[in-house]
Amino acid sequence: MAKRHLTRRQSWRIQKIQDERSARASRRADLAEESLLGGDLGPEQEGQVIAHFGVQVDVEASSGPLQGQVRRCHRRANLPALVTGDRIVWRADNQQGGVIVALQPRATELHRPDHRGQLKPVAANVDRLVIVFAPLPTPHSNLIDRYLVAAEQAGLEPLLVLNKADLLDQGDSGHIRSWLDDYARLGYRTLCLSAGSGEGLDGLRRELRDHVNVLVGQSGVGKSSLINALLPDVDLRVGALSEMTGKGTHTTTTARLFHFPDGGDLIDSPGIREFGLTHISPDELLEGFIEFRPFLGHCRFRDCQHKHEPGCALLEAVASGEISAGRMNSYRHILASLSGN
Ligand SMILES: Nc1nc2c(ncn2[C@@H]2O[C@H](COP(=O)(O)OP(=O)(O)OP(=O)(O)O)[C@@H](O)[C@H]2O)c(=O)[nH]1
Ligand SMILES: [Zn+2]
């Protein structure tokens, strides 16, 4: 058979078809890549995680036209697990959701042990630990000091709040008021107020402004009452956050971030309220007693246990009144509880 000769016109048509085909293919590849990269997503913008639900999180837009809006978002697979309070970069989709594409560095992290005892972050970027106590229930000895050490360890500024001030005149609770003065003398911020009567709440509102706050304290001191007074539009119930699901209402332990009307944020969940001392070394414990710091490293013996060694700088400070005997006892109790002896 004779070799088929194509006319110039035929060659031109074949070439044209091939060109069109490859243009289509490359357009398809472009489209596929675009959808992989999120071609139907809006521009990158900043946001904050305000709640999380398994693989999804609620993101509040921090700036731009969506500022203040909340979107339920997925995260890119290469990102670590996110927690409430995280500052992130995200892109809105066109279905009221979005994708989180980057996690900003965390200024602080609050940790809790999970069911296997592994420490896991539960909230990020908190900077204020509001330690609530009251004349009733009578404070557990050392509890406030434990919280203070935990705050120092986590890099949070503590605020000591003595609630139920209306009960201070009853019974023998006068010494509780003097505790507050002792802590104020150490340099801690303190407030005495009453969630019940509302007395002193304005001072608390001012203290919470410009901070991301967490409230902790033993059960019954009035944390829910305080939060309800500060966040009148949020029904917190006592200690439980409820979430509607297809199966009905159930209680979840997810941490949520709320904005106070007068400024400042609160991150709250039953898990967060249980924030306390975990995995701390004896040295970190010593550092957590702020008035001990000037004396650390000045004992005669480098391995001083600060029990009854001669030349112990801490014991000398107790003797001279620079460290209170109460705080020294508290340190010893906590140390013993850490090492289990
Ligand atoms: N007299 C008095 N009672 C208060 C005050 N604040 C709270 N209470 C009461 O203290 C009790 C405990 O308050 P809650 O707010 O549930 O305490 P909580 O710290 O949230 O407790 P948990 O949810 O168990 O952690 C309630 O009966 C409150 O009414 C106060 O300022 N004065
Ligand atoms: Zn010593």
From TrEMBL:
UniProt KW keywords: Cytoplasm, GTP-binding, Hydrolase, Metal-binding, Nucleotide-binding, Ribosome biogenesis, RNA-binding, rRNA-binding, Zinc
Cofactor notes: Binds 1 zinc ion per subunit.
Binding locations of GTP: 163-166, 217-225
Family to which this protein belongs: Belongs to the TRAFAC class YlqF/YawG GTPase family. RsgA subfamily.
EC number: 3.6.1.-
Secretion signal, residue range per the UniProt entry: none
Entry protein name: Small ribosomal subunit biogenesis GTPase RsgA
Gene from which this protein is expressed: rsgA
Residue span(s) of domain EngC GTPase: 124-273
